[in-house]
Amino acid sequence: MNLRYTRPLTEGPSPADAxxxxxxxxxxxxxxxxxxxxxxxxxxxxxxQGEDVVLYRxxxxxxxxxxxxxxxxxxxxxxxxxxxxxxxxxxxRFAFGPDGSCVRTGYGTPPPPSSDLTPLPVREVNDAVFxxxxxxxxxxxxxxPDWHTLGSRAPRLAAWEMAGHSQDxxxxxxxxxxxxxxxxxxxxxxxxxxxxxxxxxxxxxxSRERVPLLGESPLEVTLEGCGISRxxxxxxxxxxxxxxxxxxxxxxxxxxAFQLRQASWLDVAExxxxxxxxxxxxxxxxxxxxxxxxFRGNCEFVAQDFxxxxxxxxxxxxxxxxxxxxxxxxxxxxxxFYPADRLRTHVxxxxxxxxxxRAT
Length: 360
Ligand code: FES
Ligand SMILES: [Fe+2]
Prior knowledge:
Layout: E1 28-34, E2 43-48, E3 51-57, E4 63-66, E5 81-83, E6 86-88, E7 95-96, E8 102-104, E9 122-125, E10 128-133, E11 156-163, H1 167-174, H2 179-183, E12 189-197, E13 200-211, E14 215-226, E15 230-237, E16 242-254, E17 257-268, H3 276-303, H4 306-311, H5 327-334, H6 349-352
Antiparallel strand pairs: 1-10, 2-3, 3-4, 5-6, 6-7, 7-8, 9-10, 11-17, 12-13, 13-14, 14-15, 15-16, 16-17
Bound molecules: FE2/S2 (inorganic) cluster and fe (ii) ion.
The site of FE2/S2 (inorganic) cluster has 9 residues, from loops.
């Protein structure tokens, strides 16, 4: 039957933001920009958990983050400008110094009382800018590790926005069961069982992968997480001397939508059998050639998860099977990043008993 509709019907899986989210906003550090986006003299506005955050850079390179509304009459400071180290409101040109204090009005009169901005905790790590957010306003009580990067070139960057919850990006790193069926890895084995320690976790896997131009190679992958928004994935293809690493940072922007940022680095070992200048030239040429290919490969790899993340729900309790990664211990670890009274999910008794480190 050939049906014709004047308006398209809704069909197919509903996006995750069509329903009430089952996980609340997490607490911690969240990426809101790449460092290279925050050019001195510019003002950026970025979404973070239902609010805007305004970012700018001081002359010495330091990043500042503030809430968006001017204490004077509420104009959005994201429309403002930077003069020297002062943030200037677009409405009446009140100026705010690096510590947030109102240093002058646009009329040459003294600043009114209680007219200072509140700076938000902000860090710049691994070529990205992170802002702290805690549901009860608590100050940062842990710091972001500066994960290693590779090579001498600036990272390749990508960013996406989709329905879903940022925890799924981090959970993906320990969901060892999905790498073969969804991403097409060869058979994988756990090289180092998962450990969960404070705000961090780490797991290593061995597998095989087909690399553009080079062919198939054994693959060694180490996945680390810190906080419930940031993952570092290091891969080594020992057969070709190629190493890559990528940082993934996921930030909730609305109750069931997030932004995902990826920064990727690559390094090709210098062949030891050749004289040093030739070896260096060869390694840099190969890195140049492979960087784009590997980056596109990384983007395509992570994009295979997007339809799943954008339509899935938080399954609790999950019905776990032999062959899954350490999903249960991960979820137990992840609870520390949420307000306990708003976490409507529960953890199975079998998982509650696995405090701290635990293998798959
Ligand atoms: S609203 Fe910002 S200076 Fe008036
Ligand atoms: Fe994945």
